[in-house]
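Shipment paperwork, digital attachment
Item: protein structure file
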Amino acid sequence: MVLEKLKKPEDIKKLNEDQLKILAQEIREFLIEKISVTGGHLASNLGVVELTIAMFLSFDLPTDKVIWDVGHQSYTHKILSGRKALFDELRQYGGISGFPKRKESPYDAFDTGHSSTSISAGLGMAQGRDILGQNHFIVSVIGDGALTGGMAYEALNNAARMKKNFIIVLNDNNMSISENVGGMSKYLNGIRTDVGYNDLKRCVNHTLEKVPLVGAPLIDKIARTKNGIKQLIIPGMLFENMGVTYLGPVDGHNIKELCKVFREAKKVDHAVLIHVRTKKGKGYEPAEKNPSRFHGIAPFDIATGKPKAEKKHPDYTDVFAKKICELAKADRRIVAVTAAMPDGTGLKSFAKRFPDRFFDVGIAEEHAITSAAGMAAAGLKPVVAMYSSFLQRGYDQVIHDVCIQNLPVLFCIDRAGLVGSDGETHQGIFDYSLLTSIPNMSVCAPKNLWELQDMLEFAVRYDGPFAVRYPRGQAYRGLREFRAPVEYGKGEMIFEESEYALLAVGSMVSTAEHIREKWKAEGRPCTLANARFVKPVDTVLIDRLAEKHDKFVTLEENVLQGGFGLQVTAYIHQHYPHIKVLNIALPDAYVEHGNVSKLREALGIDSDSVVKKMKAFFGGSDERTS
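Attachment content:
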């Protein structure tokens, strides 16, 4: 086996053309085998095997730097950079990440997890290289889908100012840029990277500049004539007009051709973009036929491509998907907006039933939110469905375009709280803190699937900015008998006793239920209340609890700073200074990847950990834990 012979990253440069082809096949087999066990991003990684091999052949890594946009397609990069033996623990707690991590390897030049960032990061690294007088290459790899993100164009606009080499690789796996025309474009690509051609072009311009009166107009006329011809035969004129040299398209599965175009790109003394055409899921038929389903996949059966564990009960996304369609059927003003996540957010069924009222804006969260604000101003009821970690990218728009105008935009925030194996960049642990600081915003979180339905029904009628936040995974089916009508800013009493009061919100209500059972098993009375609203906090409920309880525990799946618990604590300390309050929340830290249950235990928010904290805190210790 060729792959087994690679003991060091530089060993790949000793392989011949036939061995490189075998290596690509062996890497695909390795990825399919390992991801079928651990889960992970499969289709995107199968599509960039040859591209990654070509970069390891063409560049001196890690001296040269490769920045992967999003980063979920970096598995081959990790294999070739010496981490193959660690793939049994890919995305597992304590194992290697599914994304580039600088702390994990010097070959990982920049941490990435969200889209459209690699050109900006690469440009910054290239500028740092130049200021420090260094001479290595910087390569930013970006997918065609990421070009729907405005940040990529902001970076391209600035990349045109580069006076030294900076390479951008556009990984086009969905024909989003029109096909080039025949051999003429290949000829022009070659001649425009030729040193002699570029020297001649500079000499001609320099000479004409010295000609009085007619020199400058003549240079402009030549340039416009040349660009007009190129416009007809080169699809990359968008990039050329921004001042970035365009090369391609190149077959992204032809290692020889890729290495050739990298050699040409390295000659350019400014920013250059290489257009690479790849096939997502290449080499595994189920992934080739359905790349979206194999984008991020749980453990699966290799022979069939089907998940090993069948879903027995609906998850919160399923509940949202069904309910929002029901509400949209009754109210034609309801429209749905998402940022390249119709499947992940559950809006695929909405898109099929109400195609004229569904808007997928691509990877453009800022635009999604402001366009929703415009729809609301026009009299519609926009529902913006996003993952918690992606909502962060449109925070200014939430403040500036939605909340200042007090517009009725409903934010349905999926994957809130701990999400597990995708790690720091995807954990949805900041949204309470971010949203509750904004005037006019209201925030709530359901305890179970029925409460999510009720909150959505309430939220679409509310005349102002509103956020409903729910976690990843199977929807909780307990506490069904407790279904008080949703009232604005009002919590819900579930079990009322005395002395100890558990005040939980969202996913932590089910945890609090288990805590109460364990606490009562030791003979201690315990009340459980469901806060429901994080903003506004139900102070009437707190007042009621304060009558018979002198020990409070707040529980939330959000960071402590700026979250629910500190709001409650501030109110209690102001009005009931004798009451002790223990805040259970996530630490002021980024949470790594791993199984959610293991993460909850490690972070001290599972029921056993909370019971221990309660005993320590209320047993006389003055040290507060969180």
